Amino acid sequence: MTHLKEIAQRLRALWRWSRVARDLDEEMRLHMALRQEQLQRRSMSTDEAATAARRRFGDPLRLREDAMDAWRWRWLEEGIQDVRFALRTLARRPGFTLTAVCTLALGIGANTAVFSVVSGLVLRPLPFADPERLVQIDSVSPLNPEGGPVLGVETFRRQSQSFEAIAGYEVSARYVRLAGVPERVMTLRAEPDFFSILGAPPLRGRTFGPNDPPAVAVVSERFWNTHLGSDPSVVGSPLTLDDQTFTVIGVMPASFQFPARAADERIDLWIPLDPPLPPRRQIGDVIGRLRRNLPRAVAESELGGIARQLAVQYPENNPHRIRVVPLSDAVVSSAVRQSLFLLFGAVGLLLALACSNVANLVLVRLTLRGREVAVRRALGAGRLRLVRQFLTESLLLSSAGGLAGLGLAWSGTTYAMRVAGAHIPRSHEVGLDWRVFAFLLATCTVIGLGLSLVSALTVGRREPQVALQESSGRSTMSASSRRVRDGLVVAEVALAFILAVGAAMLIRELVRLRHTDPGMVTKNVVTFHLGNLGTSDSDVRPFYEIADRVEQLPGVRAAGFTQLLPLQNWGWTFNSSTFQVRGRVPKREVFPIELRFVTPGYFRALGISVRGRAFTSQDTGDMPPVLIINETLARKSFPGEDPLGKVTTRGTIVGVADDVRQADLDRPSMPELYTAIAQNWSHLSDLGLTLVVGTTDRSDPIRELVRAVVHDVNPNLAVFRIKTMDAVVDDSLSSFTVYLYLLAAAAVLALVLASTGTYAMISHMATARTREFAIRVALGADRPRVIGLVLGQGVRLMTIGLGLGVFGAFAGGQLLQGLPVSVRPPDVVTVMPIAALVAAIAVVASFVPAWRAAATDPIGALRSE
């Protein structure tokens, strides 16, 4: 209790210092008066008593300081004094302070923004119970190294001893009927243990389990708010899904978003998987919860043994190696992580450049304060005291820059997630959390310590007598300070050049991709996705009728359906071992083949040439199956011969189509096989299809006409996700474009900082050499000579910086290989224009102070000295 009272008294003395000081002065005067009165009663005169009293108590100021030491923490009081002095010092130079704070804010803000994304996507655990025990189970093979459907989930669940539970799930678009109008909803069908594995509690009601009937549903909070009116009694209410009635049993909170999807693909409905998976059925996604303290390698080895047994039982499904990965790694792929870390490195270079710029400003400012520092040292201020003052000023600068950077980071992150969040998993979890604030605090502290170290090393090198002599005239830097200053300028130029080359490399790749032939026509082509609700499992005629009627519309040259558009970065594939020419020995080479289902007008709508013939309305389910293959498949399966007319295990080849980029523009065409939708309707009847419409001019007016045709043919068909093919191409490049814009913004900021840093350095150098230039002009030197002297120093530093930057650009170019597209290493064609741009910026930044120095009036300059 005594210690608490003492702390309270010290805090009171700290914050109410003036009042405590007045009380102490009054108490000291009282004691002095009482002593003087006592001595006067002993027959001393007034003056003698006052002198004796003062001699008895000693120096009042020292007595006051000794007494105050018992009431305060001296170290804290001196710290507050340092802060006050630093604030006054910074306020006297608002130009310097504002420039330094803004420069640091840009660097710190960019780093904090990127770190907040890294924190939300990579560092933050998944919002589920014991997320470290959650795993995803994949089946991988040389043909599908990223993982594919898993066979035998029920067998895994029954025989495995490594898991508490295993559940498979699949995602598809379903259609709810609200007020008689069908509406598309992304739906997840899962096995009963799905929610218990994740351990995510519902917002209302409950989740389904093994004892629930198949016709129950759990809805998202978003769906509950937007479609069900936030009805508090929603639990137990009916919901019509694909003409089947489900009972709503629960509502999941907005924070539950699994699997993480793009904004327009987020799951709003969870229903049981019905019927249950048979042993030989494959399912695309499987999750599990490991038993406590069980390594993943043990679980993977156990599942691998079970999978080998299944391969013997079901050889036709050919199960491959089983891979068990942390669920967090599956949600945020390694490609996304690597791209984020590359971007973090880029903004780290930007921060280093900003710190270099501010350090240069600090050096210049220390030169201008040389006399002040020398006087303080001559009056007894120790080096440690000065270093502490510089540390306080540096921490104030970095803290102010950090606060401004925090605002920039928050606004930048919010905007980036709004623009690009649809392409980033877990984007809803990106925000400012304790990790971000800890990173910001550490960054500001390190920057403050670094700037103070620059000041301490500069000030501590000179004795006060020498400093006073140097500062008696115009302030100049010492040789060591000039070397530090020049080194910082060289670093700024090098870092700016490296970032600019990185941005130029990405721009080069984007231009290359933009000029890559996708193998199809994208101009004046619009696509409509149609949900397949209320159509017969055996009746494909409505879709053919829609395509035929749309082709009759004015301005339409062709229309056709497909189950999957090109450039979707995913697709349906099958093993080439099931595609063999009848009567021939099967080939040993095995490779994946893309599979697409289309109607007759599809090729004409996209301008894809077909050698042989395209599909016709006569290619129906009761006719022999016919196929169209692409040129790549023709070369691989039929080298040196004409594939037309060949009879394969999947049908007769009637056409060879030109190659189309299926996944993205950066990957060459894969082998591809087209089949007629009418001959494969049993595989597609529960899926939606995409209508591709080629027009002769602008596609805007056709949209409502197509909607009217669809509604007239079948009102139950929902039309949504209307996009032009140009927009589809843009979407395929969206993730790469996001990284390009961010890196380009960092490069532009780096060039701005490098140019301002070079300008400030050359300007200060020219100002410091005013006397020298005045003497040179007085002795006959002309203006070009003076300009050359100043410009030469800037060009020399720029040349050194460019040399280091070229080395760094070629050395670091390989790091960009982790981006979503392949990035070629830097070459001369890319590097030289950037070098010329950086050199031009540096020359212009140096020329302005050089011109001003050459215009110096020698008489006026010498007189002022």
Which SSEs are present, and which pair or pack?
Blueprint: H1 2-15, H2 17-40, H3 46-57, H4 60-69, H5 74-92, H6 94-123, E1 134-141, E2 144-148, E3 150-151, H7 153-159, E4 163-178, E5 181-190, H8 194-198, E6 204-205, E7 216-220, H9 221-227, E8 238-241, E9 244-252, E10 269-272, E11 282-283, E12 285-290, H10 296-313, E13 321-326, H11 327-331, H12 334-368, H13 370-378, H14 383-420, H15 434-459, H16 464-470, H17 479-514, E14 525-531, H18 541-551, E15 556-562, E16 572-575, E17 592-598, H19 602-605, E18 610-612, E19 626-630, H20 631-637, E20 647-648, E21 651-657, E22 672-676, H21 681-684, E23 689-695, H22 702-713, E24 718-724, H23 725-732, H24 734-768, H25 770-778, H26 783-812, H27 828-854, H28 858-864
Parallel strand pairs: 5-10, 7-9, 17-22, 19-21
Antiparallel strand pairs: 1-2, 1-12, 1-13, 3-11, 4-5, 4-12, 6-9, 7-10, 8-9, 14-23, 14-24, 15-23, 16-17, 18-21, 19-22, 20-21
Helix pairs in contact: 1-2, 2-3, 2-4, 5-14, 6-12, 6-14, 6-15, 12-15, 12-17, 12-24, 13-16, 14-15, 17-24, 17-26, 17-27, 18-22, 24-26, 24-27, 25-28, 26-27
